[in-house]
Amino acid sequence: MKAKPSYRADIEGLRALAVILVILYHYQVPGISGGFIGVDVFFVISGFVITQLLERAFQKDTFRFRDFYARRIRRLVPVFLLVSTATFLMISPFYIGDAYYIFAKSWLASLIGLSNLYYFNELSQYFAPETLSLSLLHTWSLAVEEQFYLLWPASLYLAYRFGKGRTAHWPFRITLVATFVLSVYMASALLITKHDHFPGYNALWPTLGTAMVIYAGLHQPATFTARLLSLPVMVFLGGISYSLYLWHWPPVALMHYQLIELTWLNRLLLIAGVVALSWFSFRFVENRYRHRDWSFTKSFLIFILAPLIVIWAIQSTIRIADDTSFRIPEERRELYKIIANNNPADLYKRCFKGKPVEFNQSDACLFGAKPADGQPNSMLIGDSHAIAQIGFIEQLLKGTDYSVLMVTRASTPFLPPAIAEKAQASDPTKVARNQALSDYLSQRPMTVFIGAWWSAYLKSEHYQRYFVDTIGWLKAHGHTVIVMEDVPELPSSSYAECLLKNMDDCSISAEDVKKSLANFYRFKQNAQQRYPDVQWINPRKVLCDATRCQTVLNGIPLYRDESHLNNVGGIEIGQEYLKRFGNPLTSSEK
């Protein structure tokens, strides 16, 4: 590879094209359904530019690892610190609870170049956050690039030293091609799409196309494509592309969190604001520090270690004592407490988070009437959606002789042993839990309230049969079965905080709710045909009319996330149910 002039306007244009695609995609501009490939274009450009820079340094014998990493720190970190600090200040009056703490953790991970691994772990959890409101989610690609910088210089250096003096430097070139292709592919593998099979062979087209444009520019710099990419506007946007990429996502993430629609006016205002901020940060931050002749030690201490300590202190403070009084208005704090501090799984953790086999049978998990003979005559069993309805169920228990023992566990719907061994074979803990619960239920007949995240499990044809057979098992053991239907699932957890966002209408489409329950209705129909005496209690009767379903009732926010009630909300629904429909536990309603 012959050394070429270091500056190429067409590469700046490629950077502009890449960041334009990403921004238009994230701003949900119609017709831009594959704009995420802009990230792949960035990876190819970075690989080429860094490889060319390293080869020139190797040939001149001027390469030093400390100098290389000092330049990378000064190039990348100052603007990141500016944008992330501004983002922290921007979201502080709005983000609450886990959303605020997750930002603080991602801030720390992003600074040390591990945000891709952090988000991979965070988004794979059961109660994963909403991706669209993660303010630093876009830094995953920067983390991949930084990890590339850790591995690539050493790989090329070893290959160059090994092949020095040999014809065509074949080890250098083989390593270059193999490692570069692998790095681009692995980086692309972190992307998530809703439609096309990506990555895989589809990742080849943007990466190969970018490589071909770069290669053509090496030998024919005056091609039509190169002239187009070298237009002044493209060169300008390419020059500020790093700042554009950093600035473009945090404001739209806040808009998603606040449930603000991305109208055309909002898109245009965002683009104008982001371009202005990017020019400012490029002019006064990027250019101010990137060319300074600071040592690695000085660069590391100022831009990595010192901010790391500050961000860690902020994260720890938020985790230990997030005082909302200084950042959230008083009128919203009481609503926040209802949403954040009334998770039934926390209020009754002994009935939810205890040992899987030795479930808690103490008074702490007993609801309703006091057991006449020391033994409850009823049980509430199921997963987190079952315990989320305990506030609703408690209202129905008033004035009845039901003494209910609550036994619930996250992601563990009740299934009899023979079924659990098939359905939950990959998790022996769930099988053991259901075996212990089945043993308890086999001792004597009682009334069994059963709840679950029906819409999630019933997507599977297997679970359609499993749950009907579970009702049959309970009936065969002499139990009276009451199925607790679920509340409407919200489009996102942000809707649970609707009142905090000052929205005029906190309702959602009843038609969308009906569609989301299609699998549940099919299960219910099959179960009713086989077991017509099973009782079904539907809290949606309180929340939904023919057109809309409410997420707020009598000024009370009902949910804590997109599918779970908070306890105060459950109580409010129960009280309203009794007023409108009477008590199904004391009537003949089925």
Question: What report would you give on this structure?
Answer:
The structure is a single chain. With 590 residues, this protein is mainly α. 58% of the residues lie in helices and 6% in strands. The chain has a six-stranded mixed beta sheet with strand order 1-3-2-4-5-7. Strands 6-8 form a two-stranded antiparallel ribbon. It has a two-stranded antiparallel ribbon with strand order 9-10. It starts with 8 loop residues before the first helix and ends in a 9-residue tail after the last helix.
Secondary structure topology:
Elements (H helix, E strand, L loop, with lengths): L8 H18 L10 H24 L4 H27 L5 H15 L3 H8 L16 H25 L6 H19 L15 H16 L4 H6 L2 H8 L1 H17 L6 H26 L6 H26 L8 H11 L3 H4 L18 E3 L9 E5 L1 H4 L2 H8 L5 E6 L8 H7 L4 H14 L5 E5 L2 H4 L3 H16 L3 E5 L23 E2 H7 L1 H13 L4 E3 L2 H4 L4 E2 L2 E2 L2 E2 L9 H15 L9
Parallel strand pairs: 2-3, 2-4, 4-5, 5-7
Antiparallel strand pairs: 1-3, 6-8, 9-10
Helix pairs in contact: 1-2, 1-10, 1-11, 2-6, 2-7, 2-8, 3-4, 3-11, 3-12, 3-13, 4-5, 4-13, 5-6, 6-7, 11-12, 17-25, 21-23
Name its key features.
six-stranded mixed β-sheet, mainly alpha, 590 residues, two-stranded antiparallel sheet
Short description:
With 590 residues, the protein is mainly alpha-helical. It has helices at residues 9-26, 37-60, 65-91, 97-111, 115-122, 139-163, 170-188, 204-219, 224-229, 232-239, 241-257, 264-289, 296-321, 330-340, 344-347, 384-387, 390-397, 417-423, 428-441, 454-457, 461-476, 510-516, 518-530, 540-543, 567-581; strands at residues 366-368, 378-382, 403-408, 447-451, 480-484, 508-509, 535-537, 548-549, 552-553, 556-557. 39% of the residues are buried.
